[in-house]
Amino acid sequence: MDLRSLLGVDTPIVLGPFGGMSSVALTATVSEAGGLGSFGLYGLAPERITAIAAELRERTARPFALNLWLPFQGLGEGAPGAGFDRAEYDRAIAGLADLFAEAGVAPPEWPVAPLPAFDLQLEAALAAEPAVLSFVFGVPPTEVVDEAHRRGIRVIGAATTVPEARALEAGGVDAIVAAGVEGAGHRPSFLADPEAGLVGGLALIPQVVDAVGIPVIAAGGIADRRGVAAAFALGADGVQVGSAFLATRQSAAPEVHRARIRTADAHETILTRTMSGRAARGLPNHAVRTIEARGGRASFPLQNILTGVFRRRAAELGEPDLLSLWMGQAAGLAHFDDATEVFSELAAGVPDDRA
Ligand SMILES: Cc1cc2nc3c(=O)[nH]c(=O)nc-3n(C[C@H](O)[C@H](O)[C@H](O)COP(=O)(O)O)c2cc1C
Description:
The protein is built from 14 helices and 11 strands. By secondary structure, the chain is an alpha/beta fold. Strand 8 (about 215-220), helix 9 and strand 9 form a beta-alpha-beta unit. Flavin mononucleotide (FMN) binds near residues 40, 158, 185 and 220.
């Protein structure tokens, strides 16, 4: 099926979800423009999920996606849903001491509260009945895909390699995000090591397109009409864009973060586990370098929860040195402050027969 009919949109452009940094304003703006706005539910309690879906419905009657992280345990990572290890907490707190002090906040006390349970998040997301549920870090269980379909919800998964794309298709998803290494934020690998086999979009997109029979949405490094046109030329059915939208005034990113996206260069970003414990692409700053130098980093998700305490304060202070400056390799192509302008620029690259 054509991606536009599948998602119920006019233009095959998807706003990537930003777990922890999504905004209702940005999601609704992209959906209203004729694309698919996504909202990242990472770390949100079920009541927040219900409230956000209601807010989105107040802002737009058009389709939107809600995005969940599956409870995946990567190599060297903590078990999802399990309690945290005290010794690991002590080591991580010691390693982060300077950063807490610089932000002027106390480290979180032991025991650290875990993330909301996935099953409860899922229940709330399904009950909200968005047009689309998208998942990262694995293949959603068959009963989840079936239940989504029973409710008329389309399901999208994300792949960083051809075997991951095949596994998602076998798992019954309706479309696949082919996530190239260029992309911002966490690299959603689940069969491959996220730091090995760093496949870029130019190679990944056509190979995923050849490997599966369902629509493919290209993500990573696309920020203007040229990137969109290239993705379609490689066989993609749509594109998912993050950084260029994150840089706009409708986004929830702090102003200093948005400004850094617009001035970054392609070579400046790195994949790093320092801030969250899981490999993610962003700009190396003082916080990243300090954690690298001090060591003692905790595994995901504990490290992300701990750094979140000083990151929240840094966002209030407008202090970029203590933020997670997630952005992709095409950040330097992000010039617009308004998400509607980003959307028009991207839409100009969609081939006429798909627009
Ligand atoms: C701050 C931030 C948070 C993100 N969180 C998520 C997430 O929770 N789920 C997800 O599927 N993708 C997430 N992503 C990836 C984006 O949705 C998108 O796929 C990616 O940014 C595309 O690459 P680009 O930035 O080069 O356009 C995140 C990206 C950023 C910048």
